[in-house]
Design goal:
The chain is an alpha+beta fold and about 130 residues long. It has one helix spanning about 1-25; strands at about 35, 45-50, 55-60, 70-80, 85-95, 100-105, 115-125. It contains one helix and seven strands; from the N terminus they run H-E-E-E-E-E-E-E. The strands form two sheets. A four-stranded antiparallel beta sheet has the order 1-2-3-6, with no helix packed on it. The protein has a three-stranded antiparallel beta sheet with strand order 5-4-7, with no helix packed on it.
Length: about 130
């Protein structure tokens, strides 16, 4: 009878641990990776991005034949009605021709209600 209680207790503890681990997994607050709209500048393009609770992560690629120095992504945060909530900048660094780099931007509290984004990528060309 004691061994039945122990095995039942182990199963219960195991199930609770599994639920606790699933509850703190980072995927819980993540949204799926989305394709970023391409802008007028086809040389530096935000390939994709994904929104977590308070972070926006993405990838920029240099399609130009020239190297780009000090690549910066400017993100405009938009609400449901496409009204601008504000902008933030994040540096990607230098990208040679064909290279891609990732960015991670901590979203300010006032921009967290955004439902969509517009990206502008700037650089110094060499």
């Amino acid at each position: 009878m004691v061994s039945r209680r122990r095995s039942g207790l182990r199963a219960w503890v195991g199930a609770c641990l599994l639920l606790a681990i699933m509850g703190v997994a980072p995927v819980h607050g993540a949204k799926p990776v989305q394709k970023a709209p391409s802008g007028k500048n086809k040389d530096l393009v935000v390939l994709d991005y994904e929104r977590w609770l308070d972070t926006l992560k993405g990838t920029v690629k240099n399609f130009s034949k020239a190297s780009a120095r000090d690549v910066t992504v400017v993100v405009k945060f938009l609400d449901r009605k496409k009204k601008a909530l504000g902008t933030q900048r994040v540096s990607v660094g230098d990208l040679r021709s064909g290279d891609q780099g990732s960015f991670s931007l901590a979203i300010q509290e006032k921009h967290r209600s955004a439902t969509s984004y517009q990206f502008a990528v700037h650089a110094i060309w060499q």
